[in-house]
Design goal:
InterPro entries: BTB-POZ/Galectin-3-binding, BTB/POZ_dom, SKP1/BTB/POZ_sf. By secondary structure, the chain is mainly α. It has a domain of 129 residues: Potassium Channel Kv1.1, Chain A, CATH 3.30.710. It has 17 helices and 3 strands. The chain has a 3-stranded mixed sheet with strand order 2-1-3. Strand 1 and strand 2 form a beta hairpin. The radius of gyration is 28 Å and the shape is elongated. The N and C termini lie far apart (101 Å). 29% of the residues are buried.
């Protein structure tokens, strides 16, 4: 036994514990795990770090069956269950041991067990620690734990940093459309972001939408995003065309005009025709499966754009 460790970590035989907490969690396969903690009511429900959850429980002995067995059985998400020992350390007086991986879970536990100092300290850590490098980890935890406060923090951070966001950042590739509706102000919760140009945004939208299964993405959501676009990066053009085909609400025949989105894609591809020297086989395959009217427009517009950029021959050259 170490004198400096929180008392709940001592040998249960020497603890003189007067309460037991059983934390139950289920993994993705549905396998149950139960962790048992021998604790003290005085630490849980008294002092500046007390839990109001346990305070009410201990004060209402006739109303809660837990008191009959001096045991609380609590179901928690696996992320929260893993962080529960850190909560106990904090309640017993230790400094909070918090990392990027545990911060959201500790904030969630602070809310669940109504430990305001834990909740506030964890939230402040999230605010200062959050970066474009770890944002996807915060997002995954906040989504899994349904932590709206941390999710709002993520949304606000992305709104602030979107101009510096790489389209291949994991937060783009691993997030749901709902996040981006909130970030861009398309869900009426925040003011809509106004862009001077949408070149970078087109790449973010293309990468995010291409990474979705069909379940969370539908035509209405896709076109809500693309209606923001006034210009498109050539690297995003073919992906956006493929998505436009997937979510198209009508059956275009080859004689009809291109959609507004596909015309933007034509503009991007023709204006940046030299980029095709860097295309890989996948990009050429995507182009191969475009409709004839699209390919013809790209070719015509490419020739026109390329010709306009050639130096004009002076009529004095013949003299």
């Amino acid at each position: 036994m170490q004198d400096d460790q929180p008392k709940w970590r001592d040998d249960p035989v020497d603890l003189f514990s007067d309460w037991k907490i059983e934390i139950i969690s289920f993994n993705d396969e549905g396998v149950e795990t139960t962790d048992t903690y021998h604790v003290h009511k005085n630490f849980l429900a008294h002092g500046s770090r007390r839990s109001k959850y346990f305070f009410r429980l201990f004060r209402s002995e006739e109303s809660f069956t837990e008191n009959q067995a001096s045991t609380s059985r609590i179901d928690l998400d696996p992320l929260a269950a893993q962080a529960f020992p850190v909560l106990l350390d904090f309640v017993y007086g230790s400094n909070l041991s918090i990392t990027s991986q545990t911060a959201t879970a500790l904030h969630h536990l602070g809310e669940y067990f109504e430990i305001r100092p834990l909740q506030d300290t964890s939230f402040e850590f999230c605010q200062h620690d959050m970066s474009l490098d770890n944002l996807h980890a915060y997002y995954a935890s906040a989504k899994q734990l349904h932590d709206d406060n941390v999710m709002n923090l993520i949304v606000d951070y992305l709104r602030l940093k979107i101009s510096k966001l790489s389209p291949t950042n994991p937060i783009v590739l691993q997030s749901s459309p709902d996040l981006w509706l909130r970030v861009l102000g398309l869900d009426d919760r925040r003011e809509k972001i106004e862009f001077k140009d949408t070149i970078l945004l087109s790449q973010i939208i293309a990468k995010m939408c291409m990474s979705q299964s069909e379940a969370p993405m539908d035509a209405k959501t896709f076109y809500t995003f693309t209606n923001l676009l006034t210009s498109i990066h050539s690297n995003a053009a073919l992906d956006l065309c493929e998505l436009d085909d997937r979510y198209s609400l009508g059956d275009d025949d080859d004689e009809s005009d291109l959609s507004a989105l596909q015309q933007l894609c034509v503009d991007a591809l023709s204006a940046n025709w030299t980029d095709r020297n860097k295309w890989n086989d996948e990009q050429f395959d995507k182009m191969k499966y475009r409709k004839p009217k699209f390919i013809v427009k790209v070719l015509r517009q490419t020739v026109s754009d390329a010709t306009s950029k050639l130096p004009r021959k002076s009529h004095y050259a013949d003299y």
